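Appendix B, example 12.
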Amino acid sequence: MTRRLVAFIAALLLCAGLAGSVRAATVTLSNGQTLEGEPISFNAQGLVLKLSDGSFGPRVAWTNITQETLKELVKNPKAKVFAEPYLENDEPEEEAARKAALVVKPKIPDRLERPNPKAGFGALFASPLTLTLFIILYAANIYAGFEIAIFRNYPLALVCGIAAVAPVIGPLVFLCMPPRLKKSHGELAAESMAQHQAEAEAAALAYAEAHPGEEMPEAPAAPVDAAPKTIVYSRGQTTFNRRFFETKFAGFLRMVPGEEERDKVIYIRSARGEHIGSRLSRIQPNEIYLQVNKGGATSDVMIPFVDIMEIQVRQKEATAAPSH
């Protein structure tokens, strides 16, 4: 009886030892270290081993365990839920071969050619856009010459031609030159009188040489111009500004002209044309408005001070512009 009891206890101890050896596991880490013990706790952070000496090791993260050990651990139903997500899927051999044979050939896009650094100044005219800009600037240069010719009272053909031959420089030269003023009515009358006097002296000298000792008969007196004197204000001798017009043309600012201004008109020669009017409708800081008659109706013409070359106050019978 005693022998049977001893044999039974020995058999139980042997089964317990065999069971312990089956439950024990070897865990290989990714750094090459191995841990031996019985896995007793599993969660999302890792597993805990009960070591052979009865102590408990630290929790080992699933990411630190090799794939071979994970494949063994998933056989345990308790560890499968946590260890399976960390297993790498083995690709089929055909898929692996196809990926290995796949060659990526990048497509190189078309790129713009870089400009030649040694092209020089002539490369500017190779671009259509640059050529168009040059043409626009050249046309603007000629138009500037046209405006300067009007402003400075020079011949249009002369200024525009020089602007075409010498761009920018030509218009600037004419812009810096003083305006070319036409001769006023008084200057023309003085020149005519001087010419008449010179002709009379030449005739007297010729008569004295042909008839020595005889007195030259008196020439008939020149007809006296009974017309009232024309008042002339020229640029260079007069500063045209608001104060000048308010002082000299106060009578022409009234709605009803006075006795002195009733039979007179204002003739203005400017850089943009000639105008004749009966009164000044308005005076601004930089321009005046002359009331002129056109087709039986009156209208106001704006004339800037800087464009005025000459102003004449004359009788209505002498409204025709002087010929220069």
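The chain is about 35% helix and 20% strand. The two ends are 163 Å apart (CA to CA).
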